[in-house]
Structures are given as structure tokens and as C-alpha cells.
Amino acid sequence: MRLFFIHNLYHVGFGDIQPHGLIRHLVGIESLTVLLxxxxxxxxxxxxxxRYWDRGENSIDKPIIFKLYSMQTVIHIKxxxxxxxxxxxxxxxxxxxxxTACSTMNKSECINAxxxxxxxxxxxxxxxxxxxxxxxxxCAEHGIKxxxxxxxxxxxxxxxxxxxxxxxxxxxxAGSRYNGVCISHNExxxxxxxxxxxxxxxxxKILDNLKREYSSExxxxxxxxxxxxxxxxxxxxxxxxxxxxxxxxxxxxxxAEELGKAKLNLGNLAGNIDHQTGRISDMKRGRSYN
Length: 290
Prior knowledge:
Strand content: under 5%
Shape: flat
Structural class: mainly alpha
Oligomer: single chain
Helix content: over 70%
Number of helices: 11
Radius of gyration: 33 Å
Number of domains: 3
Order of helices and strands: HHHHHHHHHHH
């Protein structure tokens, strides 16, 4: 494995060892990382050498302030150019990885493909019928056509395993979208469970928002308490005028009122969180999808 990665760094294409499955994406990332490092190094050396190539122009007598300003401007411009270059390389890498991810199969997988098994796997993962088009495009590069009948037969068997109420419920509970794959495979029961899971998911999101509000209110209360303590300490220990004391007293009163409202709101939020938690528990107990 170590020799394969070393070979992949310095050669174009593969040798006797070929990557399969998800490791193909890792191989692509490795190559792009090397490209990024080489490009960054070349750019850095180029910018550094420019300092020497431009020495003749920079050696002309100029006020020291002008020289420093010019150097700062050049460094800033070159730095921005390098950053833009690196950004472009990263963007190119992301596009390349995304393009690679769309290639569902390599040459070896196309040659040795069991299309019934591939269809079954796509069906159990809930892929739409258009998935075969991606396989066809990937294998067309190697002159191989998928067996559509075997693939369809396998996918239908896989969808029978995918389009069940428990899968629909947990897909909905995860906030997933329904892509219509179960239209001929117990869609009604699947959708009923999916919609119920989606309803629970929405209630969970409400609970999450309540918890965030509670945490934010707690932070607000701590700030108010610190501010109130500071004002009270200043009133007791500080040598202040009557006007200043009156102003501090008014500010303390306002903070205390705001603190009281915040604590009341915190209590209401705690009650809402308890209520929402109970509601979600009741919904989950209302139906069992094991």
C-alpha cells in the first residue's frame, strides 16, 4: 500500500495496483495535495526571486519612507496574488473531486460487474432509477454497457428492502427528503412512516431552538449579574459625588429590573423545554418502528 501511494505521487496513471471503492477519492486528494504543494513552492520561489530581479530598480536613491512604503505595497500585492492562486487551485481541486465522485465505477469494476448485485445495492440505498445512467457513463469510457435487465431486477429486489416503514421513519427523523423511489414498492406505508418521522424531526428542531434560547438567556443573566455587582461595588466603595451616586442608583435599578425579566423568561423557557421534551417522547412512543 505504501508503494502504491508513492507510485501515485510521481507517475501518471496506475500500475499493477488499482484503487477500488472509496479509496479512489483518497488517491485523487493525494494527487491534488502534491499539485498544491508544488505550485505553492514554485510561486513562493518566483516571488522571492523577483526581489532580486527588481534590485536594479529598487537600488535607486529614494527616501527611506518611500522605500518602505513601496516594499510594503509589493509584499501586499504579491501576497494577494499568491492567496488568489492557492484559492484557484483549491477550487479546481474541489471541482475535480466532485467530478471524480460522479464516476461510480472504475474499469475493473465495470469488467467484473454483477449488475444484479449492483442494482440490489443501489436499491437498498434508495438510489433513483437515474443511477444506472451514472454507471453507464462510467463504464462507457471502457467500452462496456450495463446489463439493464439484470440491474433493474436487482434494484427492484433492493427497493423491497428499502421501502419499508422503519426505513421511512428513520429517513424522516433524520430530516431527509423523499425522492419518489418507492412509487411501486409499498409507497403508501413508507410515506406514512416517513411523514411521521419528519413530524418528529420538526419537533426536535423546535426543542433545539428552545435550548439555544435558554443557553443565550443564561449568558445574558450572567452578564447582568456581573454588571449589577460592579455598580453596587462602585456605590459602596467608591468616593463619588451625589450626582454620580444618583446616576448609579438609577442604572442599578434598571439592571435589576432587566435581570428580573430575564430570569422570568428563563423559567418560561425551562417549562417550554420540559413540555417539548415530553411531547417528543410521546410521539416516539406513539409508534414503534424497530
